[in-house]
Amino acid sequence: MIAEQDDKHARDHISFRKIWKDRDDEEPQLLEKILSRDNLKSACRRVKASGGAPGVDGMHAEEAKTWFDENGREFMVRILKGKYTPRPVLHTEVQKKGEAGVLNITVSTVPDRIIQQAIVQQIMPIYEQIFADGNYCNRPGRSAQAAGLKVLEYTQQGYTNAAIQNLSESFALENFGQLLNILRRNITDERVIQIIKRILKSGIMEGDTLTACKEGILQGGTLAPLIANIYLNEFDQEFAGRGVPVVRYAGDIVLLAKSRRAAERLLETSSKYLEGSLRLRVNENSGRVICICPEDFKDPDFLFGKDKNGFPARGHDRSAVNSEHGCC
User: Fold this and answer.
1) Residue 295: how many CB atoms within 10 A of its CB?
2) Which residues of the chain have pLDDT under 50?
3) Amino acid 106: pLDDT
4) Which residues of 115-154 are buried (b: 16+ CB within 10 A; e: fewer)?
C-alpha cells in the first residue's frame, strides 16, 4: 500500500541530527512557517482559550501567554536547531457516563500544546484538500449532527442498511512506521515528520511511572486527532474507490449499503482492512449491521451525537428494531 519511495527514510536509518543538517529541499520552509511568530502567537491564543488540565509540569492553560512572552523566542530557536524534546504526557482515566469502562485521556504540557497547535494550523490546509467528503472527524465547520445528516442523505437514495465499526479509543496501531510514511507523502520537510514522531512517542507519565509509548495515539493531544484522521483517510479513500458511501465521525465509521446482505459483507471487508492493511484495533463486539429509517433522524444526536456530558450517545443501537417497522 505504501509506495516504494515512501519507505526511503525507514530504510536509511538517518540520524535526527543528520536530518536537520541535510533536510529535504522540496519544502524546506514548512518548519519555518510553523515557527513564525504570528503562527505561534495564534497557537498560543488557541491553547489558552481551550483551557484544560495541566500536564506533568503543572502549568495551566491560562499561563500560556505569559510563558510564551517570556520564553517564546528561546523555544523557537531550540526547535529550529533540532533540540526540542517533548515532555511525557500525563495519563488519567475518566469514567464513561452511561457506559461501562473508562476513557483514557492524556494531557500534554502547555509548551507542547503550543507547538502541536502550531503544526496543526499549518498542515491542516494541506490535508483539507485530500480528505474524503464523508469525513466529519475533527474538521473545521463539521459536526456530529452534520455527519448524521449526510447519512440521512444517503438513506433517501436507498442506502438504508449500514455496517457500523468503532475503533479502539487509544487508536492502537501496530506499525508506527506506516503512519510516518503516509505523512511523508504530503509533508516533505523531514524535520516536521521527526518532530511529530517525537510528540507521538514522548512517553506516558502515570503517577511516578514513565512508560514508553509503544503503540497507538491516546486521546487528549492537540495534534493526535489530526494525525489519526490522516491515517484513517486511507480507509476513506479505499472504500470510496470501491464505490461505498462512508461517513466517519470520531471513532465511529458508517458504511452504507442498499441491502442487509451487502452491509454484512461490508462489515467483514472493513474489519479485514482496518485490522489487516491498517493494522488498527477495532473495539471488540462493536461491529454490527443495522437498518436505518429516515424517521430516526428526528433525534439530532442519532448515530454520532453526544450526551450532555460530552460522551457518545450511541443512539444508533435503537435502530436495530427498524426492520420490524418495514424500513428495510
Assistant:
1) 12
2) 1-14, 24-27, 306-326
3) 83
4) bbbbbbbbbbeebeeebbebbbbebeeeebbebbbbbbeb
Strands 209-211 and 204-206: antiparallel
For every residue of the chain, which 3-state class applies, written as one string? CCCHHHHHHHHHCCCHHHHHHCCCCCCCCHHHHHCCHHHHHHHHHHHHHHCCCCCCCCCCHHHHHHHHHHHHHHHHHHHHCCCCCCCCEEEEEEECCCCCCEEEEEECCHHHHHHHHHHHHHHHHHHHCCCCCCECCCCCCCCHHHHHHHHHHHHCCCCCEEEEEEECCCCCECCHHHHHHHHHCCCCCHHHHHHHHHHHCCCEEECCEEECCCCCCCECCCCHHHHHHHHHHHHHHHHHHCCCCEEEECCEEEEEECCHHHHHHHHHHHHHHHHHHCCECECCCCCEEEECCHHHHHCCCCCCCECCCCCECCHHHHHHHHHHHCCC
Main-chain phi, psi angles of 257, to 5 degrees = -145, 165
Q: Cβ distance 296 to 321 under 8 Å?
A: no
How far apart CA 192 and CA 230 sit, in angstroms, is 15
**What is residue 93's predicted lDDT score, i.e. its pLDDT?**
74
Give CA angle at 278 (143, 288), nearest 5°.
60
pLDDT attached to residue 251: 84
How far apart, in whole angstroms, are the C-alpha atoms of residue 276 and residue 39? Answer: 38
Length of the chain: 328
